[in-house]
Write a structure and sequence with these properties.
heterodimer; A: mainly alpha; 14 helices; B: mainly alpha; elongated; disordered N terminus
Chain lengths: 336, 304
């Protein structure tokens, strides 16, 4: 077991180095002088230029520069935003909970709808319900979510005036960030109305971000269930005279869920990609919108540090999923 | 004399010969209604793209503020001259969508062509040479796969500068690992087979083995992945366009059209509805086609 954990953990080292290399070369590939790139459009006086050159080690050979960069990153120093002068790590950690909250709600939404839909579609194979689920999930899988978000705004916010168009909560409320997750913070505060405001702001972004995972989970659950339902032990269970519900819920589902759990883990990367688009549409103050804003402000330290941090987060989640998968399925543990 | 012998079996037993591979493929493929529907839509989009100059009622670029934000013809204030309405600066939406079809197909094909060529070569090299070369290539691909695809594309575009060409390069790089993995996996299964050994024994060089012997036998999964790749490419390029990092205005790329019209969504539903619908339908068609091709070409890959 220990050996399994150690191999998996050691496998992420090259990935981590790859991500840091990418972030490192990002600044250097931007056409022009890197110091001027870092300093922004206002320019910089020659003395300060020279000082910064020394500070960042641009006068050193490239691999020494990378060493300096890597040691800074490992100490948690990702540079400062050119616009706000705040350390990139601080900005990231103050915005990240908003993204996590949205992503978490989206995956719950996808699971709550996707698992039952996939299970029922598999049990009633080739029924109208099955075809409907497969059709909808194919559409969901092909969905340009940036357009989907605008359409939902048109329907729910403009036509029926049910949900707000943007933001995380009404500007009326000021909620002291305790956990950073608004749903929890508003419950802790003494304003019950604020909680409902936060919920209403979450509905549309959750649906938009959850659509692609929902489609993937429904498809995957259905095919995993179909595979398991054809196994011998299901026939045995039927022959024993067990009820249909017992067969599905106890015998089939537990085995079918193994591939589904992996797929859910792999959706984390998809969620962060989707979060960039979703946050842009709904002006959701998370890391995705922050990164896009950084591009247009030419705030390269934010882009560099933000991309690195997001990459590391996705890498770590994938590792955790891998380890969890090895824990529940001994066959995986012993293959490598 | 010889001709008689050659012809005799062909005439005598036409039913005994196996069906032509293409015919066999078609009988599998046409049984899948979704795939046929996808193919029909794709053919239609291709025709629209090719004949854009003929069928588009207006120029996609000419602006006329006098007719700005006209609704589609079935709504009050709309006219048949601008069937799907006009955008905030008075350009015909239908015409822009027709020219956009050209761009989207071009994006899909160019992106997949770039990554299929580079990916297949890398995969063949990894599969044939094994050892350090393989580890290096595959680890690199794993890194690309680890990062969220759009994030990587965004970072690349941010470095190279926004624009259609850079967006296409970024998307091509992002979908590259799929082709590398496929080609490598196919090479590893194929090289253990007898015909490759036979070719090797008869003195075929590595290049010949790679491109003449093995490659033709792993085209099926590559074709399937190409069809699915086109849908990803169109979707990701449109997403970049929407974020303002892909094709730049006034280009009639569908994602860019959405970005242009975004702020008018509350006043004019048609400016965002139609371009997005075009993306959805085209992407859906390529996904349906890909699923159908997978079932027909490669029953081993058949899922669900």
């Amino acid at each position: 077991m220990l050996r399994f954990i150690l191999t998996r953990v050691s496998l992420i080292i090259p990935t981590f180095i790859g991500i840091t290399l990418l972030a490192f070369f990002l600044i250097r590939l931007v056409p022009g002088d890197p110091i001027e790139t870092l300093a922004g459009e206002r320019g910089i006086d020659p003395a300060r230029h020279e000082q910064l050159r020394k500070e960042y080690g641009f006068d050193q050979p490239i691999f020494v520069q990378y060493g300096i960069y890597l040691s800074r990153v490992l100490q948690g120093d990702l540079g400062k935003s050119m616009i706000t002068q705040e350390p990139v790590l601080n900005e990231f950690s103050s915005l990240f909970p908003a993204t996590v909250e949205l992503a978490f709600c989206a995956i719950i939404f996808a699971l709550v709808l996707g698992l039952p839909a996939g299970i029922i579609a598999a049990i009633r194979r080739n029924s109208i319900f099955d075809h409907g689920v497969m059709g909808i999930s194919l559409a969901g899988y092909s969905m340009p979510i940036f357009w989907w978000g605008l359409i939902l705004i048109l329907l729910f916010s403009v036509q029926f005036d049910l949900t707000p168009v943007s933001g995380r909560i009404d500007v009326l409320y000021y909620i002291e960030p305790i956990t950073g997750f608004l749903l929890i913070d508003t419950l802790l505060s003494d304003e019950p109305e604020a909680f409902w405001s936060a919920v209403r702001h979450l509905i549309l972004p959750t649906i938009v971000l959850g659509t692609v995972p929902l489609a993937v989970i429904a498809r995957m659950t259905r095919s995993a269930m179909l595979e398991v339902l054809g196994e011998d032990y299901i026939r045995t269970a039927k022959a024993k005279g067990l009820t249909r519900f017992r067969i599905v819920a106890l015998h089939a589902l537990r085995n079918a869920l193994i591939p589904v759990v992996t797929v859910i883990g792999l959706q984390v990367g998809v969620l962060f990609t989707g979060a960039i688009l979703t946050e842009t549409i709904f002006s959701w103050p998370g890391v995705g919108k922050w990164l896009i804003d950084a591009i247009f402000r030419r705030d390269y330290p934010v882009l560099q540090g933000g991309a690195l941090l997001l990459g590391v987060v996705v890498m770590s989640v994938n590792l955790l999923v891998d380890l969890a998968y090895g824990l529940i399925n001994p066959r995986i543990r012993h293959t490598r | 004399m010889t001709t008689e012998i050659m012809e005799a079996p062909a005439v005598a037993a036409p039913t005994a010969t196996p069906p032509h591979p293409l015919r066999e493929f078609w009988s599998y493929f046409s049984a899948n209604h979704g795939a046929v529907a996808g193919l029909v839509v794709i053919v239609a989009v291709v025709i629209v793209a090719l004949l854009a100059d003929v069928i588009a009622p207006h120029s996609p670029y000419v602006t006329d503020t006098a007719i700005a934000l006209k609704p589609p013809f079935w709504q009050e204030g709309g006219s048949l001259a601008y069937p799907l309405g006009t955008d905030p600066i008075g350009r015909d939406i239908l015409s822009r969508m027709i020219y956009g079809a050209r761009l989207s197909l071009l994006i899909g094909i160019v992106v997949v062509a770039i990554s299929i060529v580079i990916g297949t070569v890398l995969g063949l090299v990894a599969g044939f040479y094994r050892g350090l070369t393989e580890i290096f290539i595959m680890r690199l691909m794993d890194i690309v796969l680890t990062l969220p695809s759009l994030l990587l594309a965004i970072v690349i575009v941010a470095v190279l500068g926004p624009g259609l060409m850079n967006a296409m390069l970024a998307v091509a790089l992002v979908i590259l690992p799929h082709y590398v993995r496929l080609a490598r996996a196919a090479v590893i299964t194929e090289t253990s087979k007898d015909y490759v050994m036979a070719a090797r024994v008869s003195g075929a060089g590595t290049m010949r083995l790679m491109f003449k012997e093995v490659l033709p036998n792993c085209t099926a999964p590559l074709i399937v992945q190409a069809s699915l790749g086109i849908s990803t490419a169109i979707l990701d390029a449109a997403a970049l366009g929407f974020l303002g990092l892909g094709a730049q205005p006034p280009s009639p790329e569908w994602g860019t059209m959405l970005a242009d019209a975004r702020e008018f969504v509350l006043r004019a539903w048609w400016v965002v509805t139609f371009p997005g619908l075009a993306i959805l339908i085209t992407v859906l068609a390529f996904n349906l086609l890909g699923d159908g091709l997978r079932d027909a070409l490669d029953p081993k890959l058949k899922r669900s």
